[in-house]
Write a structure and sequence with these properties.
Elements (H helix, E strand, L loop, with lengths): L2 E6 L6 H8 L5 E2 L1 H8 L3 E2 L5 E2 L5 H18 L3 E3 L6 H12 L4 E6 L5 H10 L8 H13 L7 E3 L12 E2 L5 E5 L6 H11 L5 E5 L10 H11 L5 E3 L5 H8 L7 H13 L4 H8 L6 E5 L2 E5 L18 H6 L7 H10 L5 E5 L15 E3 L9 E8 L5 E6 L11
Parallel strand pairs: 1-5, 1-6, 2-5, 6-7, 8-12, 9-10, 10-11, 13-14, 14-15
Antiparallel strand pairs: 3-4, 9-16, 12-13, 16-17
Length: about 400
């Protein structure tokens, strides 16, 4: 998921040990390790072995380039560095913000300087840093603040960075709605059909726009409801077009540029309001309702979140789904094998054979080709009742000669 974890603390404070104890291998970028890739251990005139700092500019350039490649895919990332300068943290905040990341900072500056120096002295010779380096860092910790917009956590608050199971039993019902694709009339019919009380949760799996003919109405509805507690919207692949358009950036989509954008412009959709709504998009929703667990994503995954916290799943995988587009049914089967009987997943995005909503593999598939005159799909969960699969036929479609 789009989560960046920074650390702040001097050498010897325990950052690297903490990372190894709390996170699996494969998510951490370390400048210390990168320095040893640029240069082998060096020896000074007294015969002491040390790590060369001569390539620091190249090291940090490489670290940022690697991080940005990870950010493009929405991968959980940890930076194992001291972050004693405000500008260092601001650089990470800016780069991560470009890709809509949440940024956390684990603050370990509370460790006494004497303890850091003692630990530093007991390290292997290659890892020892001069004591004056630690002194300078502690001085900077007092004068170089953490930038606003970065969530500062104590190490005991580390659970905050994980994806948490939500408990939805306060609602009378939970309605999970599939890809809408600009089909507003079908959406209103579906909501009217399923809604029985004002105390219901609505979860949308993504792909609100494109291919349908009522995109502006769907976007207006999205803007109006995105801030409500009982409306949750997840990100699909088509939301990227909306985000770029709302920021005035170039959209590389013939469908969006020829049809969706003109509709939004004609309806005078306010880009700032749309950006604010898009900022509320989630990448997944993991919840418990009526003693069963459900995991909702746009594309569908192959591994139950009870086995691996969803924070470690990239945004790209949550949006596009595990594997290739045509692997969806294999993925659903794998989810069943990799989960308990009372754990289900709900997704949209891909259903090339147009199979029914319930796949019999603990998965509900809400992709129904609504924009082509198919159906807008949903699942409705009510306490003490079986899951109800709902499909609403869409009759408001684009004329064939207008298709891209």
């Amino acid at each position: 998921m789009r989560t960046l974890v920074l650390f702040r603390g001097a050498p010897g404070c325990g950052k690297t040990t903490f990372i190894k104890e709390h996170f699996p291998v494969g998510y951490t970028l370390s400048p210390d390790e990168m320095r040893l890739m640029y240069s082998s251990p060096q020896r000074d005139i007294d015969g002491h072995i040390y790590v060369s700092q001569a390539h620091n500019k190249k090291v940090w350039k490489t670290i940022r380039e690697i991080a940005e490649e990870r950010f493009k895919r929405g991968e959980f990332t940890i930076i194992d560095a001291t972050n004693s300068h405000t500008h260092e943290m601001s650089t990470w905040k800016s780069l991560a913000g470009k890709y809509n990341y949440k940024v956390y900072l684990i603050d370990m500056t509370y460790v006494p300087i004497e303890k850091c120096k003692l630990r530093n002295a007991l390290r292997p010779s290659l890892e020892v840093v001069p004591e004056e380096v630690i002194d300078r860092m502690y001085m900077r910790f007092q004068t170089q603040p953490v930038p606003r917009g970065i969530t500062v956590l104590d190490p005991i608050e580390i659970n905050e960075v994980y994806c948490h199971l939500h408990y939805a039993d306060k609602y009378d019902a939970v309605n999970v709605i599939g890809d809408v694709h600009g089909c507003y009339t079908a959406l209103m019919k579906l909501i009217d059909h399923v809604k029985k009380s004002d105390n219901e949760l609505f979860v949308f799996v993504g792909d609100l726009c494109d291919r349908g003919v009522e995109n502006a109405d769907v976007v207006k509805f999205f803007i109006e409801t995105a801030g409500l507690d009982n409306f949750l919207y997840l990100e699909g692949d088509h939301e990227a077009h909306l985000r770029k358009w709302s920021k005035g950036e170039k959209v590389i989509s013939k469908e969006f540029n020829l049809f969706t954008a003109p509709q939004l412009t004609k309806a005078r959709i306010k880009k700032k309001e749309l950006r604010n709504a898009l900022d509320k998009l989630g990448q997944c929703y993991w919840f418990e309702f009526d003693e069963k667990r459900y995991f909702v994503s746009h594309g569908g995954i192959s591994r139950c979140p009870d086995m691996e916290n969803p924070v470690y799943i990239s945004a790209e995988e949550l949006i596009k789904g595990t594997g290739n587009y045509e692997d969806v049914y294999v993925v659903e089967n794998a989810y069943q094998r990799n989960s308990v009987f009372t754990s289900f997943q709900i997704h949209g995005h891909r259903n090339p054979e147009n199979r029914p909503v319930y796949s019999e593999h603990n998965s509900f598939n809400l992709e129904g080709k609504v924009e082509l005159g198919g159906e807008l799909r949903a699942v409705r969960l009510e306490k003490g009742k079986a899951v109800r699969c709902v499909s609403i036929k869409n009759d408001v479609v684009r004329r064939t000669e207008e298709n891209v």
